Amino acid sequence: MATRASTRRDVAIVGGGVAGLRAADELVAAGCGVVVVEKSRGVGGRMATRRLGDAVLDHGAQFFTVRGDSFGGIVSAAVEAGRVARWTSGFAQAESINAEVVPADDGHPRYRGAGGMTDLPKFLLERLGARGVALRTGARVTAIALDGESVRLEIDGAEAIRFAGCVVTAPVPQALDLFAAGGLPAPGLIDGDARRRLAAVAYDPCFALMLVLDRPSRVPPPGGIQCASGPISWLADNHLKGISPVPALTVHASGAFSRERFDDAPDAVSRTLRDLAAPWIGDAAIVEQSLQRWKFATPTTVLEAPYVAVANRPPLVCCGDAFAGPKVEGAAASGLAAGRWLAETLHNA
Fold first, then answer.
1. Phi/psi at 165 (5° precision)
2. CA–CA separation, 251 vs 262, rounded Å?
């Protein structure tokens, strides 16, 4: 395996979701060279949008809100650039997918990407690219190790690169697997409590069934139904949402259903979810369909701290939506805090 070193101030970010991109923003502002390593073909993580034929469907995170000034500034800039739009201020509510649907409007804006949820991370990446941040897509990290004064990333088992520090935004169980593959825990840990705190984080999986229809669905405006219980937690009409030129539904299974059926044959899961969503499909025929299986969809255990520092010499830190508040804004805040800690730690080294 070939090993090469980065420059003294080069840092790596594992994962190109919102947390990683916000960490990159903080680190490049501190004068670091930043490389974002992403295993998929593009950025966004669970802010995911897919094309099926003529349809466009969000199949991960469905919307985001703004509570704080920092994230609010980013969203305002993205709105001004035409990359983000306000969707609604409330969704239809139902006890379960077959129960009565009640309109809801709490006055608090929910936002979407102008053409899909990937638009916000793409907007962040474009701003970072103009500032010299490098992106490696299709690069799967297989191990993360401490190597003297460096963090060593092994990529696809064929290449190893040493960096001055590293931010890991992968779901926590995957991060722990990468550390184990690299020989961590090892001397250099800040405290023996770091691994215990990370090991406490748990997630719900989620099936996302995408259905392209030949005519409008029966989902009421503004295009989303949230279910309090039962096997379906969310149903969205991407045409009413404003991102798809043709009718297309996203059906999210609940965490309980997804855990129980996670290893079932995809065709069987799709058939069950189609049957459950049938009242909202109505007379429409399904033109095309696809099933996405998210293993780490929703954190069910969220740590109070915005990040967990695994080592400080060299600096290695974990962050993401399982830290100090889930959802998109929580992930962004976590990435910002982790990037700031890494920059300060390098500065004080």
1. -170, 170
2. 15
Question: Do 140 and 26 belong together in one domain?
Answer: yes
Which residue, among 281, 267, 276, 291, has the nearest Cα to 237 in the 3D structure?
A: 281
Q: Which domain holds residue 234?
A: 49-113+203-299
171 and 227 co-located in one domain: no
The answer to whether residues 105 and 84 belong to one domain is yes
Give 125-147 pLDDT, tens digit per residue: 999 998 999 999 999 999 999 99
Is the domain of 104 the same as that of 235?
yes
Q: Are residues 196 and 156 in the same domain?
A: yes
Average pLDDT over residues 279-308: 96
Of 344, 334, 342, the residue nearest 307 (C-alpha): 334
Q: Which long-range contacts (CB under 8 A, 24 or more apart) does 326-330 make?
A: 326/298, 326/299, 326/302, 327/61, 327/64, 327/65, 328/18, 328/47, 328/61, 328/64, 328/65, 328/120, 329/64, 329/65, 329/66, 329/67, 329/68, 329/71, 330/302
